[in-house]
Structure formats: C-alpha cells, structure tokens
C-alpha cells in the first residue's frame, strides 16, 4: 500500500469515528476533521521519511485533499460552491458541465469533475446518504434524487432514465436581501418598491401572489418583501425545500419544509399536510414558498381567515394565469367547493399579483407588472395594472391608479396616500 493510501486509511477511520460522536455544528466538525487529517498525515509522513526516506509528492497531497473534501463536503463541486458568484451547477454526464453565474452569465466547466459515469454516480450516492435531510438511495432501483444539502443547496440527480447521469445544484447566495437591493440592481423601480413595501407592511398588509417562470426571481422578491414584516409578527413559512431562510433573521418564525421518504419509503411529509396543519400554528402570516397543488386551498383559506399579509409564489406567465392556476390547484385539493365560488373567494382575498420576468439573452430578472385584483364578475377575474414595463426592456412605471377601495385603505395604513397620485389619463 502506498504512503498516501495508508495515510488515507487511517484518516478515514479517525474522521468517521469523530463524526459519529460529534455534537458541534457541521462547520466546526469539518474544521476539526481537517485538523485530525493534517495531524495524521504529518506524523505518518515523518515516520516514513525516517524509516524509508519516503515523503508525499504534490500529487499525493492533492489526492488526499480531494478525498477529504469528498468525505466532508461536496467533493469536486466544493470549489464551485465556495465561489460567491455561482448560482447553479449543471453536469450533463461526468465530463460536461456548466455554471450559472449571478447576473445571468454562464461559464463552461473546463476540467471534467469526474473520470467516468460510475464515479459520478458513486459521488451522488454518497451525497444522498451523508448530506441530505434523511438517508436516501441513488442507484438503479432509485434513479431519481431530489434533496437539500445540509448547507442549503438543492440537488437534483438522475441516472438510468437518461442517457448519461445528470446532476444540477441550485445555490442560494442572497439569503438576506431588501427591496433597496432590487432597486439598485434594476429589478424594481424605487417608486414601485415603495408601493410594495406599503402594501405588505403592517398594520393592514395585503395578500400577495408572485408569479413568473422558473428562474425569474420570484423567491428573491418574496425574500425582499418578507424584510418588511414587523419584528413582533408570528410568521409561518411552508416550503418544498428551504429557500426563504426567514428564521435566520426573524425571531418569531415557524419554518417548515416537506420531507421525502427515506430509503425504506417511510417518513414522508407532504406540502398538503404541512399546509393543512399550518392553520393551527396561530401565525399572523402564512408564506408558501411555491404553490404546486392542493396546498393552494390552504393558502387561500389563510388569506381569508385573518392571516393578512400572506404571500406565495406560483409558476405562471401572467397575473390572470396565476389566478386561474391558483383556482385549478384548489379544485384538486378535494376540499374545495365549486369553481365559481373559488374564483369569487380568490378575487376577494388576493389583493395583488406581481409578475416577474427574465430575459435569457441579457440575464435581466425583474418585476414586469404589479396588478391589483378587482373582483370576479360573471366568474371571470377582473384585474388592473398599477405598474408595468410599457416595453419589454423599458423601465417599470406607474400605469394606473389603484381602484380597489380595500387595497387603497391598506396602502394608506402602510404609508401611501393614493389620492395624491395623478389620474390615469396623466400617467
């Protein structure tokens, strides 16, 4: 056995033993394990040098570092995750990769992360067992994997059902963000930011639905809006995978996420169950990271039963489509009533729909429309744009004066008097 291999054998045993008994936070455990590994390597190399004149080469030292990184962190992906500008990692097999960077930029991965498909699959299986919420499997019998790493990144992987193994990692670089940050980045005008802040802050916050395509910035805007809540409010956040991180900055947060079944098929907690039980939490607001199905009925119920200022995101290409999809999801809950009644209820309790858009050519992500919900005469949603971009790449401008009297009253309590706004003819 080579010197490097014998050192790694001893390091592996010591590190695994330490990790089993450790009670410190994960970063502290990782640092301690690195110190253990460095100490073993130093002692063993000194012994080999005295006995045989043998020492570790640079390649040996690099190999040991990679082995330890793979054990403690995310192996060949660790360097990308440590970069502050990487938001997404895509691997199309072991030798072709792409980085999604902040600002919509992309960068090709030059050095192949893995030698072959087998090594890539072993790496993903290692993540599934050691880094997820629960012990998971990734093999021929379980070829699809969706999990959150303990450090917050979201991982999706596939094998067998595709021609070559596939892996994507979504990172959350901007956990703490304010509306001013979005204004500075051009995603939102200062005027519209002030409007949204007044709409969601106490004492009479509006219920807001944020819509847009995948990657359009819905969750980022939702995080910024959550920055306007009062420090004494009790907030319940419900997510498929933690992306809001409100509990890191707001003291009175009940943050819950769904849980996939373990390798034995047990322990699953669905969004529908989380949403249904959230109504018993007594929260002032209910925030749903993304509406995908029957939990929409619970969100609608929360909006209509005193949880003012509730918010959610939903995949849709326009405000009207977002409202229609909300109703369709409610219809699938099995607990909802007639479609006409659901439309009327949604029109009554959802005050604003914010439409996000992304331009893949420029990398721009921002608010395209801020729309109020006026009602649902004859079973059809009636909406009215308050802010919009008159042209796709143009500025976000006021295009209408709020017409909903209830919304106007809420805005007034939030600090905006719409009676001072110019008439629509002057906008």
Short characterization:
The protein is built from 13 helices and 15 strands. With about 425 residues, the chain is an alpha/beta fold. The chain folds into three domains: about 5-70, no CATH class; about 80-170, Beta-Lactamase, CATH 3.30.450.90; about 180-425, 3-Layer(aba) Sandwich (Rossmann fold), CATH 3.40.50.
Task: Describe the model.
By secondary structure, the protein is α/β, with parallel strands linked by helices. It has three domains: 3-72, no CATH class; 78-170, Beta-Lactamase (2-Layer Sandwich), CATH 3.30.450; 179-426, P-loop containing nucleotide triphosphate hydrolases (Rossmann fold), CATH 3.40.50. It is built from 13 helices and 15 strands. The strands form two sheets. A nine-stranded mixed β-sheet has the order 9-8-10-11-7-12-13-14-15, with helices on both faces. A six-stranded antiparallel β-sheet has the order 3-2-1-6-5-4, with no helix packed on it. The mean pLDDT is 85.
List the helices and strands and how they pair.
Elements: H1 3-21, H2 26-52, H3 58-72, H4 78-81, E1 86-92, E2 97-101, E3 106-109, H5 117-130, E4 144-148, E5 154-158, E6 166-170, H6 179-184, H7 190-200, E7 208-212, H8 218-226, E8 235-239, E9 253-257, H9 271-278, E10 285-291, H10 295-304, E11 311-315, H11 319-331, H12 339-349, E12 352-359, E13 364-375, E14 382-389, E15 396-398, H13 405-414
Parallel strand pairs: 7-11, 7-12, 8-9, 8-10, 10-11
Antiparallel strand pairs: 1-2, 1-6, 2-3, 4-5, 5-6, 12-13, 13-14, 14-15
Helix pairs in contact: 1-2, 1-3, 7-13, 9-10, 10-11, 11-12
